[in-house]
Amino acid sequence: MDDIRDRERFAALYDLHFPRVWAYVVARIGRQQAEEVVSDTFAVAWRRRSELPVEPLPWLLVVARNVLRDSRRGAARRVALAEELRVLAGRQAFAADIAGSVVERAALYEALASLSDGDREVLVLVAWAGLASGAAARVLGCSRAAFFMRLHRARRRFARALELGGADPTATERQAPPVQHQTTKEATR
Amino acid sequence: VSGRADPLRRLALARPDPDPDPERRGRVLTRALARPAIGAAPAIPRRRRQMRLAVLPAGVLAAAAVALLAAQLLQLAASGRESSPTASARSILLAAAVQAERAPAEAGRYWHVSARVAMLLPDGLDRTHHTFTDAPGQRWRLYPYQEDSWYASSASDRSVDLRQGDTVWPDCAAGLRGIDWWSRTLSVTQLQQLPADPARLHALLLDAVRGVVPGAPARGSEAEAQDVLSLAATLLDAPVAPDVRAAAYRVMASVPGTRSLGRVRDPLGRPGIGLAFSSPTGDARSYPWRRSEEVVIDPATGTLLATEDVAASSRDVRAGTPTYYRAVIAAGWTDQTPPTTPSQPCQLGG
User: Fold this and answer.
1) Chain B residue numbers touching A45 (CB-CB < 8 A)
2) Are A28 and A117 a contacting pair, CB within 8 Å?
3) Nearest 5°: phi and psi at B336?
4) What is the pLDDT of residue B202?
5) B31 and A39 in contact by Cβ < 8 A?
6) What CA–CA distance (Å, rounded) separates A107 from B141?
7) Facing A189 at nearest CB: one of B12, B122, B184
8) Which carries the bigger pLDDT value, residue B100 or residue A81?
9) Which of A7, A26, A126 sits opposite B16 (nearest CB)?
10) Is the Cα torsion angle A44, A45, A49, A55 positive or negative in sign?
11) Is the CB of residue A125 less than 8 Å from the CB of residue A140?
């Protein structure tokens, strides 16, 4: 039976890991659907709480990955991801907003959106979920060597995409939507 | 500024955080902790119980078809009397269109759908929920806490057996409005303006599946046909007029790629007529198994009972293994205000 201490421990797990799981899911499927996928992820985690490893983040990401893979909502939504990331670049909330201007974020997200889902996943597992190579390889179900190869390639393509976007800064500005506030609804979806 | 810095480091500094939302924590945790009705879940009856009708000579069938009621036509179409499952699928869909057309036009304050949704692989999430959508497109879902007791109500019961305190999930908090329509959503009003002319509806569906990304490379007619089928199927339990639902069936009949599965039982064990079509494959890395999508139609009324995803082939998953289903328990208009509504009205418009 689920006692109160179980629930408290679970809430602490949520507080600790929600932002990273969320950022990973956003990079895969976009902000619109992220909350539900993350919620499903934690629902699985609750059901399997007796199996949770000591370091649960990679495990949670594997579950999130499975939820994403198995949910049909991904198929169509993913296509609109580029648009979503553009909108996201103009939003307010960021983990570390010291260096990032809207233009910088727009350039980064633009480049990220131009990559394949696979490249994007490798990059955000490291950059946004903060996984070390061993854990990231486990999440992806590949060897560390294979992971390094994938990361190397993804990073190269990402740098190239950044260069291309940066060649014409006005293009980035043009494509970045105006800063939107939380209550602003998206007109284009 | 940071042009020279490592791109990965720049990316790490630009990690997005969710918009502040004081209610999110409660929403996610309540939904996660809600007791799943594992015990009450009906065993998934596998597979294909083919009960073929007595075989009629083709000539007799053709002559008699005119006189048959649409329901009987649908039954016959499902019996696989046609030369191929493809031809049979077409007659099933056309017969279902006739059935759907006869449904009375209804109206109400909310479009209400209760459905049991399961993601069977790999984590076995399984939930019954109620979705309410009002005309402007405000939409929310209710997850009954005591799923098992609710689930005991009969499949045809349209009453809203929900209680104060059920988990409310405002879809509009995530920017969703109305009904999923490919990569965007349509409000109920927009859905009701869809054309009842199959050719015009077909053209609209094609536009929707093509227009997702401007300038994206053409994806080939086969992939587009699959997408059109998938999208047309979403109209089968959407708040559209009976003639638009009929048009959706007719579009599905006109698009190549469907095949009949004959008489089957849906995931809740209800008898129906099954149709399969290849699902849009999407990203191969995200979907390691190829899937086919199936719909189960109620032969008596031509309404949608369930949609299912079935693994077609993979190294990891046996072909025929269901990976997802959505079984519609009830879909219709209601004037009854649900016991729990979002604490704040959704921001709509635009």
Assistant:
1) 32
2) yes
3) -75, 125
4) 94
5) yes
6) 36
7) B184
8) B100
9) A26
10) positive
11) yes
By residue count, chain A amounts to 189
Q: What are the phi and psi torsion angles at B226 (to 5°)?
A: -60, -40
Tokens of B250: 């007719």
- Mean pLDDT over B86-107 rounds to 87
- Residue B272: which pLDDT band, with cuts at 50, 70 and 90? very high
E strands present in A5-93: none
Query: Residue type for A142, please?
Result: C
Please name the residue that has the structure tokens 């002319």.
Answer: B197
**In whole angstroms, how far apart are CA A82 and each of A37, A160, A173, B181, B213?**
18, 17, 15, 18, 9
The one-letter amino acid at A123: L
- How confident is the model at residue A152, as a pLDDT? 93
Residue B238 in tokens: 């959407």
At residue B254, the pLDDT reads 94
- For residue B79 the two structure tokens come to 């019996």
CA-nearest of B292, B263, B295 to B100 is B295
Question: What sign for the dihedral angle of Cα B240, B118, B17, A141?
Answer: negative
B265: pLDDT strictly greater than 60: yes
Check CB contact under 8 Å for A79 and B212: yes
Q: What is the DSSP code string of A173-188?
A: HHHSPPP--TTPPPS-
pLDDT in tens, A106-158: 888 888 888 888 899 999 999 999 898 888 988 888 888 899 999 999 999 99
Contact A137, B51 (CB under 8 A): no
**Type of residue numbered A39:** S
Tell me which chain A residues have a C-beta less than 8 angstroms from the C-beta of B25: 11, 14-15, 18
Q: What is the mean pLDDT of chain B?
A: 70
Q: What is the mean pLDDT of residues B128-146?
A: 71
Contacts A38 to B, Cβ<8 Å:
28
Question: What's the pLDDT at A70?
Answer: 58
The SS3 assignment for B328 reads strand
With contacts defined as CB-CB under 8 Å, which chain A residues touch B349? 185
Per-residue HEC secondary structure of B76-144 comes to HHHCCCCCCHHHHHHHHHHHHHHHHHHCCCCCCCEEEEEEEEEECCCCCEEEEEEEEEECCCCEEEEEC
Type of residue found at A61? L
Chain A interface test: which of B123, B224, B294, B348 (most A C-beta within 10 Å): B123
Q: From its phi and psi, is residue B294 left (phi > 0), alpha (psi between -120 and 50) or beta? A: beta
